[in-house]
Amino acid sequence: MSLLVIGTLAYDTIETPYARRENVLGGSAVYFSLSASSFGAVRLVGVVGGDFEKVDLERLSQRGVDIRGVERVSDGKSFRWAGRYEADWNTRTTLETQLNVFEHFDPKVPKAYRDSRYVFLANAEPKVQLRALEQCTQPGFVVADTMNLWIEIRRDELLEVLRRVDGIVLNDEEARMLTGERSLIKAAAKVRDLGPRYVILKKGEHGAFLVGENVRYALPAYPVDQVLDPTGAGDCFAGGFMGYLAAADCVEPATMRRAMLYGTVTASFCVQGFGVEALESRRRAQLESRFNELLEFVTL
Amino acid sequence: MSLLVIGTLAYDTIETPYARRENVLGGSAVYFSLSASSFGAVRLVGVVGGDFEKVDLERLSQRGVDIRGVERVSDGKSFRWAGRYEADWNTRTTLETQLNVFEHFDPKVPKAYRDSRYVFLANAEPKVQLRALEQCTQPGFVVADTMNLWIEIRRDELLEVLRRVDGIVLNDEEARMLTGERSLIKAAAKVRDLGPRYVILKKGEHGAFLVGENVRYALPAYPVDQVLDPTGAGDCFAGGFMGYLAAADCVEPATMRRAMLYGTVTASFCVQGFGVEALESRRRAQLESRFNELLEFVTL
């Protein structure tokens, strides 16, 4: 499959009501690619500093992630994020964001990646997303993520991204902020008017839904017994979703619906471990087993 | 069908960000019975004061609700509730609750109702629920509702109710309060350990799920364009659910799942009107149409 992701590779410091861990491997592109790699090879474009451990890149390679697109700035420091979750898991406070080498990141898509048909633009400043996308020579299905910050301070550039992509993933708060609509169904329709043919709304523990051409599909989250760390769940959802589509090389409604299920179960593994731990130890058979379980949970 | 409900008939004063209405027909048993009556006759047990308008009882009769079990206390005042919703619809503040004739309500189940096989004990003090249930001679499938107040101040009596019913409907907050479990899946399992074979967890705009013997089923809410007034949505869900089961006279898993869908679409009509307005104007064909639409929305 030819799936490209551009986003962050990071070291995160995460506090939950139950634990605190410093400098664990994280970043949107890391979560995404470890998730999508269940379905085939993933091409990763990103940047790290001289402090980024070789062993962490090897963790990616071992899972089938192509890291030739990871640029290393030897005299720079990797992207770092620190955040804290409250006991309800829905409230997250960002304690610190150090852009570091990501601040002046000018993404370079290696020649070997440029024919990628499936492209995921993980959360980044819109101009960085556009810069990566314009290097792709034959994008077939492009999906972007974003965040409240860009909706607020880079609205015009973000609107340009929306005009150029096939799909966008947003959480409920972002969808409301972007459109001014309280109703998520109305918000999704307004987002589609801005360009993307497909809108995926993520609602965390309440699941996700897809609205697009000829398709509407709603799913609850997979009911995990215990959440350890929700960091990266949205990127894992996107990774499972895009990974399945890219492997199937199909974006028909029936395939999209199955992709939503794979995204949901992939995210469920993510939240059961700290950082990317549970993603790394997951086997494909477990994914399939949980897929079937969720399917039974939602089938009449 | 032989479906009995015991609960409140009330006059509500409701404030939303868009409107304020005084003394509109409401009450748990009113919302429930207007919903369940789409599927057949409903037997209603409740109490009203001398101030309760005859025309409001006629509104119920016209929809197929048997009101012979509604006691009138001529020198008393009907139950009254006032509440306000914030713009997110999820935050509700109770401004006033006047129990009035409901305070010393001793439910009397008419002889003609006592053979009811399907029984819904709407939210009331647990001892009132038990008093009604013990008059039923052959209850086959009994479901109860409750609220945070009884979990706090009438825990022992509520536990007695739980031991005697087949199913319980709870919202997420109540389930967590009752069990001390944050995870709704774990909470549902703990509630089942307290007695009910079936637990229905209502999550408002995020849908509902059912956990019981041989069945687990999750549904999103039907995506309405606009919410006017969420009052009574939970009772309408229960009314659609129980009404369908009673009409089918079956509680097999496949029937339960369909009943969950009917509960969901019934609640969706409720929130689109003020008070019971939208329930009254709804036609069975609209219910079926929305049933099919929701089914498509959740089917792989």
| Poorly predicted tracts of residues of chain A | none
Largest protein-protein interface: A-B, 32 and 32 residues
Strand order of the largest sheet of chain A: 5-4-1-8-9-10-11-12-13
What count of helical segments of chain A does DSSP give?
A: 11
N- to C-terminal distance of chain A: 33 Å
Tell me the number of strands of chain A.
Answer: 13
Structural class of chain A: alpha/beta
Helix content of chain A: 25-40%
Report the sheet-strand fraction of chain A.
Answer: 25-35%
The coarse overall form of chain A would be globular
Largest sheet of chain A: 9 strands, mixed
Mean pLDDT over all positions of chain A: 95
Radius of gyration of chain A (Å): 18 Å
Compressed to H and E, one letter per element, the order of chain A equals EEEHEHEEEEHEHHEHHEEEHHHH
User: Multimeric state of these chains?
Assistant: homodimer
